[in-house]
Amino acid sequence: MNSQAVEKSRETLASMCDERARMLQDQFNVSMNHLQALAILVSTFHHSKEPSAIDQMTFARYAERTAFERPLTSGVAYAVKVLHSEREEFERQQGWTIKRMDCTEQSPARNDDSFPETQEISPAQDEYAPVIFAQDTYKHVISVDMLSGKEDRENILRARKSGKGVLTAPFQLLKSKRLGVILTYAVYKREIPSNATPVERIQAAIGYLGGIFDIEALVDKLLHQLASKQSIIVNVYDTTNPDEPIRMYGPNMTGTGIYHNSTLHFGDPLRKHEMHCRFKYKP
Ligand code: WA2
After folding, report:
1. Which of 164, 173, 178 to mutate to test the pocket of ligand 1 (most atoms within 8 A of CB)?
2. Distance between CA atoms of 112 and 26, rounded to whole angstroms?
């Protein structure tokens, strides 16, 4: 192939890749804004009303009916902050005990219908973040303490001291074992000034709204909406640690030939993402 033709394919690939990256980023951004609005909804109708105007059924129905607003998420869940001193009273009110997360990993053979009753009761901790509301597809996380899972814990701690939407690295979700990332927004007791310190934020936090991004399925759906999707191979990586990129989407193979790298911005400056594109067949 002459150098002019190579240059031409390079340009074609670059524009196709950039277009896909932009689309993904836009949809991510739209989803993120609606998650923030949902956090405000919970603050307004659950925490600022006595009695609360939201229960699991109301939350699940609302989340389902507004799912189109969060195109890259496969579900949402809401966890509340419970101090150890409040645990007994909280469990009595809910009618269930707070469960811990890690033990579910060891019991893949268990009957799904008995989930989460088969999970272990959480041992005493200073504080907990049990899920109280969830979209129906994720109702198995209700009563599970999100501070008991590594990725969820880090996200909750970071969300509440920053006041911003924060993202996990891709990890295997409970039950489905699918690869997902979670975007978390903290909910605060009162409206908090934008210059509040991290300590003030931590103290004022009362809950955590999480959106679950099923990258595999949802990126696929997105890319299939584009014509000529056949001709290029797309991979999405979490490159937060440049030495150990985590593949979030696309086939596991290192191709030859020209490839293009488009950066993605998913709103959390701590995490870095890239889209890599190649031609399927040598052009
Ligand atoms: N939701 C659903 N499946 C999961 C999961 C999760 N976290 N973690 C592991 N598997 C309530 O950030 C707060 C939801 C966490 C939010």
Report:
1. 173
2. 36
Alpha-carbon gap, residue 271 to 273, rounded angstroms: 7
Distance 145 CA to ligand 1 centre (A): 9
Which residue is listed with tokens 């002019």?
4
3-class state of residue 20 by DSSP = helix
- The number of beta carbons lying within 10 Å of the beta carbon of residue 32 is 22
Give the separation between CA 270 and CA 276, rounded to whole angstroms: 20
Continuous H helices in the chain: 3-42, 56-65, 87-94, 150-162, 198-204, 215-224
Does the beta carbon of 250 sit less than 6 angstroms from any atom of ligand 1?
A: no
How far apart are the C-alpha atoms of 89 and 69, rounded to whole Å? Answer: 36
Q: Is the dihedral of CA 67, 71, 74, 75 positive or negative?
A: negative
Going from N- to C-terminal start, the domains of the chain cover 24-218
Encode the chain (283 residues) as per-residue pLDDT tens digits.
789 999 999 999 999 999 999 999 999 999 999 999 999 999 999 999 999 999 999 999 999 999 999 999 999 999 999 999 999 999 999 999 999 997 544 444 444 444 444 578 989 999 999 999 999 999 999 999 999 999 999 999 999 999 999 999 999 999 888 899 999 999 999 889 999 999 999 999 999 999 999 988 888 888 888 866 557 899 999 999 999 999 999 998 766 788 999 999 999 999 999 999 998 875 4
How high is the ipTM of this complex?
0.99
Distance 17 CA to ligand 1 centre (A): 31
Q: For the domain with range 24-218, which CATH number is right: 3.30.450.350, 3.40.50.10540, 3.40.190.10, 3.50.50.60?
A: 3.30.450.350
